[in-house]
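Before going further, learn to read the protein records used in this course. A complete example follows; check for yourself that the lines match position by position.
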Amino acid sequence: MPKITAEDNCNRLDIFLSSELNITRSYANKLIKSGNVTGEGGNLNLKPASKIRAGEEFNINIPGSENLNLKPEKINFDVIYQDEYLLIINKPSGLVVHPAPGNYEHTLVNGLIYYFPEIKNLRDKMRPGIVHRLDSGTSGLMVAARDQKTSEILKRMFADREINKNYLALTHNAPSRREGILSGPIAHDPDNYLKMCVIENGRPAMTGYKVLWSQDKNKNKNKFSLIECKLFTGRTHQIRVHLSALGCPIYGDVLYGSSVKNSRVMLHSWKLEFLHPVTKIKMSFTQNIPEDFKLCLSDILR
């Protein structure tokens, strides 16, 4: 039974569930009305239009999920490290991380249980092994758990910000300063719940950034930059929102202001560092940008 926590206030529970679970709003309505969504203290008196507060937790029962027989599939992704407790994965762009109602195939989870069948025995039948997510368009490093205890420890470590995550983003324009900290609070856009935005009553969010390279605007009116970002918090779409608010939307990120419509979002999970949840040994991994990212850079430099 998935448990999700609201990162910020929301005017409607059905819209929140639709966004968090990647399900239709009508299906979210059905789950709420049928009593399959419980709030804190086992509260069942929830309605699709219920307002929710930041920090509220909800248990979601997807009918049939306890007996869900996910199909193992030979999915294309690289495992760059593995031991008996965890995996470090290089996720390709375009791969959805976990199944959702109506879409139980062709995800990273289907691939995980193909190569590592024991993961299927974890308690969360919809998202076994998944302790954090990357957007489907984002490429790069992810960590996955191979047993229940490790899964719980890693989730706590992510919640407590004990795992360092660095990304590379190809952006339009360039910040006025070569490096700094972006600290605009983030919440759902009141006019479009699919989006997040920097807003006064949002949740605190911090992103460190450093410009690694940028074009000379005198040579090319369409200036682009390669920016390294470090997450100090973990809000939904955080890097995308903060860079857009800075005037530097990510290449291909039409939702947050890019004018390029025929590209994936050029964001890559480049580096992960953490203490191993069991052995306590320091782990550090880096993954170079994939071929599509390189080709995009090459086209810009022509």
